[in-house]
Amino acid sequence: MESISNRFAFSCNQFLQRCPLFSATGHYFLTSNPRFRMTLSSSAPQHTPSQFVTDDEGLKWRLCAGAAVLNSKNELLIGERIGKPGSWQTPQGGVDGGDKPESVTDAAIRELYEEIGLEHGRHVLLEDTDGGTSSIKCRYKTGGTGSWLERAGFAGQELNWTLFRCADVSLERNPQLVCTLSGLNGEKPEFADVRWKKLDWVVENVWSKKSRPYEVLREACIPIMKRWDERCCKLDLSGRWSRDSDRCVGVVEGLVARGLTEESALARATEPYIQDWKRHATDREWIVTTLDASGNESRRVLHYPLGEFQEAYEGTSTLFGGTNGGIIWRCCFYMAEGDSDDGIAHVTVSDTPRGKEESVRYLKSGDLILRRTFVHSWRTGRVVS
User: Fold this and answer.
1) Strand partners of residue 5
2) Less CB within 10 Å around the terminal CB: N or C of the chain?
3) pLDDT, tens digit, for every residue of 343-354?
């Protein structure tokens, strides 16, 4: 599929809301830490001995990192283990020791990549836990299982949780299309499937000997999930916003990808584009009015609810395709965004006959950024602008 990304710069209408202008010099991409930019290898990895802790009774516990990824609905990304149908867990593994011992966070980032192919800074971001992650840990015994841990003299594992928030639109909607389950960085595959599931479901479906760490995670996530919902409610996109064509990037390429001629795209990209955003009576939902070039007449009024919804449209549509109107499926949610001031964005996804469009809106320095990505439904290849 071909993907076209563009970024719109909006400045707030000074008559309705005071808001400084901003400059957009190019499309912003979060890149993963080079330390964790790993490659697929067919050779067996050279394992570094894991760190461990010893309790007051002299029992030895292997130090283990667990990667807990939450989506906009506060669901947990969970994987079904290969060869063990019905056995679910998150990516996890030992915290490397050796000459350069890992931190728990570094180990969780590495395990997330090796086991399901997700990269910190690209697919996920560290969750804002208000300093609470250091206490999310739990020891569980593995005695009587005949595991290598028992043979190595460990009483069990101390699982330390690192929390992440989904920062990728496609991952939010369907993790099976994004996650790589083949095993990366030379590691063997761990999972046959991945899904978003409520923490209550997870606690009931993990291996019984490992259920306690997930109970601890569920309890620790209660205030974190509440804080996420509060942050979503506080995101304030209200006001009148107009596109600043001189500061936009990739708009012409995006319009051409949607079927316009280059001449038409150039003309459309410089036309005024004005919207009023107002809060709906329901928390986290919006009423969006698109205005004509004068800013006086309404062209379209939409309600953006949370979740999936259908939208009917009439006449010709650059985005949706066709000239006789129709009905499309759309979806709204909130997502972690590393480029925004408050780390959060509002997302609208439109599934159209021409392809899928992702619209990510967030505030930066008091201004509104709109980043759009268009993926064709019929073309191959990927083009980003």
Assistant:
1) 373
2) N
3) 999 999 998 887
